[in-house]
Amino acid sequence: MRTTARSLMCLCAVVAAVTLAIAWEGTTVAAQQRAAAAAKGPRTAWGAPDLQGVWNTNTQVPLERAREYGTRAMMTEAEHAKALADLQARNQRPGRDSREIAGKSGVGTEKDVARAYNEFWFGDKPTRLSYRTSMIVDPPDGRMPAYTPEAARRIADKRDFLAALLQGTSGGRPGPISPRRAERSPDYNLDRINRSDNPEDRGGPERCFGDNLPVTMGTGTFGGVMQIVQSPDSVSIYYDVGQGQGFAWVIPITNRPHLPKSVQMYHGDAIGRWEGDTLVVDVTNFSDETNFRGSRENLHLIQRFRRADANTLQVEFTAEDPTTWTRPWTAMQELERADDKTTLVLEGGCHEGNYGLLGMLLNTRAAEKAFAEGKGPDPATQDNATGGGAEN
Amino acid sequence: MRTRLGVSALAVGIIVAICVISYGVIAGQVPTPRSATTPPPARSPQIKRQASGKPDFSGVWQANNTANWDLVTHEAMAARVMQTGAHGLSPVPAAPVLALGAVGGVPPGLGVVEGNVIPYKPEALQKKKDNFDHWLDRDPEIKCYQPGVPRAMYMPYPFQILQGTNKIMMVFEYANAQRTIHLDQVEPYPNDSWMGHSVGRWEGDTLVVDVTSQIDKTWFDRAGDFHSDALHVVERYRMMTPDAIWYEATIEDPNVFTRPWSIAMPIYRRLEPNAQLMDYRCIEMVEELLYGHLRKQPLVRTWEGQNMTVSVERRIPPPDVLYER
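Predict the joint structure of the above. Result:
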């Protein structure tokens, strides 16, 4: 009897202790990690899901789905075989090495020069193709949702401005040099525009701003590779996104509120939490100097990172911005584990020795001087913007 | 009966205490940062350790000294850039920093160099003095270049250490610089880089990091102390207290110094309950400095204050000079 009472007391004590402990720990990272420990994937020594390693992809998946697939997220065997044959055929083409512009030799033309890179720099051609028909998994048609009228207007305004700067050049519509060349860009410019009056005229990547979130990995030299390192209270991702545009992104595991809206950060204000095996990161406070497919400071990202299996990291983001898209949308990508002993993720060093930006400004000033002295064409009549685009 | 109840109550208390304490220890509890004014819990006198038993250096840290101004003991200066004063005496702040007054001064500081002497070879010492005299033209920090090691460790900005399983990542608020310390065997680094290649190992509770493959363009401080691409740095990290690291670095570069020399300093944990890294994206901040002279229409020509007008005359240095210094 006495024993029973004592046991009961002890049991109460344990229950009380556990209750107390839970209440005490309820708001801490440890509690989240303990919850995470209940799930099954690999664990760090301190019990958190282990996402560490070097991750990249050699498998091509388009962001948006070709309309022929409708709402099907995966290809059939026959479709995959055909798509793979198409990819291999595409790989046989000389690409930029043809030096062709619209089927004719482009050697020495403005566009040829503006392309800058030949095929070598794009690295090994992708030989693998996912069965996934698109990275976008929601909306169900695998395509980005419509822009809001406000965003559509914003994007059209910018397109008009870009076209005006090209008017009268080889890459633009016919006509005189536009007076809009003297105007400021309707947005904080991050595009490749046909003007080099100021460093702000040059595109984001040329100014070493090419490191926006979210990063979707591609194949080849410019495809990107990431390294994840975790500590008990934070997760850090180092992204090498090509052309020296690497960046470190620290995700604190915390339940603090986001920073005041007045604080804008290039990689946003990240707040992470564990949900079972998944790292869920809520990112706000983006900058109006970032541009993710039309969304700027109002972008809200929810990123999810999860080990699908020992060699696969599933990365997902939901992007929402009611000032830009008519609905939130979600994209998913599976990354492969790279050997982190032989795959060193090299540092970005884009700004240190940015001869490209310097050259564009210096050479344009020199061309203006030559034109003023009657020794060359008006730089405003030349196209320095369209040659490096996707048309090749 | 009363005694028995008392004993039981004590037992309850002890069990509760043990459960709570062991729970915290087992779970490796991390206090959740809240607002800047939320009082943090009392700090444990024990250093944090990882499950491996090794000290856990994870956290947000920052040096609190003047090493980034000058590694050796130095007195205060009115400005880093001075010009000759009256009668050739008492130098005064030069034009680019004059308007800053007391804010533009160099704070005094005790040196962090063992023996307080950096053992330059004679010709290298001349270059250091030259660097000092041309600080505004040459210091890579002014251009927002990545700082290299060891300078990254004592810049006046916080940095975060994430101590993972096989890698330690350090992320610096200044310029979003980062370095990865490999605790495992990796391939040799293929070229020189701004933050170098770091390989770490444990000597007891001390983390020893070997840093190689550094480019020759970083400096040690704002006093023109420099190195070549033969730089080899060995760092030692040891926990002094849960909230301070004793940091030592031995610097070897036979092209520049007559012998290895070392620096040492404490680096402190940022104890604010909401400590985190923010953005110091200086790449964009320095565009006017680096490219302003290449604008079609110059923007900054003069500055008009109540007491003075500072006029700016731009020069166009050859590109190699702009970048290679």
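Residues 27 and 255 of chain A are 7 Å apart (CA to CA).
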